[in-house]
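Quick look at the format.
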Amino acid sequence: MSAAGTGLLGKLVGQTAIYGLSTVVGRLLNYLLVPLYTYQFTDPADFGVVTEFYAYASLLNVVLTYGMETAFFNFSAKRGRNPAVYSTALLSLGISSALFLAFLTLNAQPLADALRYPEHPQYVLWMAWVIGLDALAAIPFARLREQQRAGRFALLKTLNILVNIGGNLLFLGLGKWAFESDTVPAWLGWAATLYDPQIGIGYVFIANLVASVVTLLLLAPEFLQARARPELALWRQMLVYALPLLLAGLAGMVNETMDRILLKHLLPAQVAMQQLGIYGACYKISILMSIFIQAFRYAAEPFFFAQYRQADARVLYALVMRWFVIACSFIFLAVMANIAWVQYFVGASYREGLGVVPILLLANLCLGVFFNLSIWYKLTEQTRFGTYLALWGAALTLALNFWWIPRLGYMGAAWATLICYASMALLSYLLGQKHFPVPYDLRRLLGYPLLAVLLYACLLPIEGLAPAPELAARNGVLAAFLGMVFLLERKRRPSSG
């Protein structure tokens, strides 16, 4: 690879670090809410409510953004950052979000009845506004990424998370404790008024709504930049480009979230919400992999589009993929090597589901690989292939979940997720090498995850040792992985793919 290519890779790493700082630090702080929920609400069924609503939220977020972010990147790059592209995308999402909010506001009670929460239509209303406001903010955030203003992007995302965390701590931490405790100091008596047991876990939605409102207000400067007149013809072209991505994104969300939706309906009613809560809490432990992938995606998508005209772009894409897989393999091994301590992030009544964690970590690794591979159909404007692949994954997810959940419970859901993402990555690789060949090093792309799994298997016999020897052994395995990576990569010439 040329010196310029190496410099561009360094630029991507730097921007990933900035996005990652807000994403990793912010979401790690947000991640600390999992102990708050699972220790404060010892019945997993309560956390099951949160798990279900956020599964629906993920699906609806894809519907309400309908691929317009990627369309914005594509048309802005190819039209020299024409300001009409931004105005057109922003107006489109503004109108669709307003229609969505009007419909759900008027139909909150019927929807609550359909979801089996007839006594809590406010849950539907609160989450509808969270989803609508977040969709409206999508294009301003995309503009910050397109302008490479990673600092402001990171600041606003971090503030959103901090406000959300503050609301949760205020209502479910201080308020719930003051309401239920008999030893509250007189000067804290007011805190008991912050909590209403009839709302209970619903304070999660209230805190999120407050954070979404604050974020939208802080994005006012970006909204005011939409001074150009929106263009109807441009909007139609953007929709033609984006709608296949909508189908692909929706199918992708089916792959990611349908397991949590189906658990409620495919398991016996007396255990369904408890199983959903356990699965949802343990699913959160795999979030460390998701955090890295999300930070990478924020930087990588505009980066890939910006480099597609360069002569050595495909070599650069292969290099990015290799180091991405190395990083994900290390995250898998780091989490599983320390699962004896990581498990305390969830309450005791949730830990029976820890068996899903390694499966979901590997599933997320496969999902990250699929995202890297997907650049071939985005750059060649053959986005229909993204739709085909996502629809394949959705069909496989539904089939396996309907087959395995009644038999295996949440373990079946976890295995279905891994098989789905692995098959999508494989098919995308085969299609990509036909339409947009990239010199990926398959031996290392497959070898590093396999090495991490084998090293994890070596840790299983040492469980139950004294703390000091066990800690030394686990750190030794992590060091061994890094040492092997160093030895293998040192032997590669910088010019190789």
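Next, a different chain entirely:
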Amino acid sequence: MDIKQIQDLIRFVSKSGVNEVSIEQNDFKITIKTNQAPTYVTANLPSAEGAPVYMPPVATPTAPATPATAASEAPAADTSKLITVKSPMIGTFYRSSSPEKPMFVNVGDEIKPGSVICIIEAMKLFNEIESEVSGRVVKILVDNASPVEYDQPLFLVEPV
């Protein structure tokens, strides 16, 4: 099983409503868990070609990530015209490529399609997430180094 198949499996598990999936092949075993109600699926797949790959179990957050809020935030603003940028996968959200590097985007920054807006680490792979919209970042909804779920809102963007 290659990394692309594993990422596809993670997306499938996230969308399907299944709580846990375990796959075992010769020297290869993978378990994917979510925070949803328990449902178990067991699969027997044919052996993968090539050398076996060890993948550690996927870490599952114990509670959903909560948006960062300012203590003196104004009353709820009209967000109907804002675009919500959502996470394309389960993993850990990072605003920069390393602690010493600048953030990819900050509130007030203009973004355009194809510009890197964050990184999501999934199973030791750092995936650059590119914007699919043009606009100005109005709000960042996730704290740096926080776990995120598939389809979880990450940014609010005002279209330009």
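Residues 17 and 36 are 7 Å apart (CA to CA).

See the schema section for token definitions.
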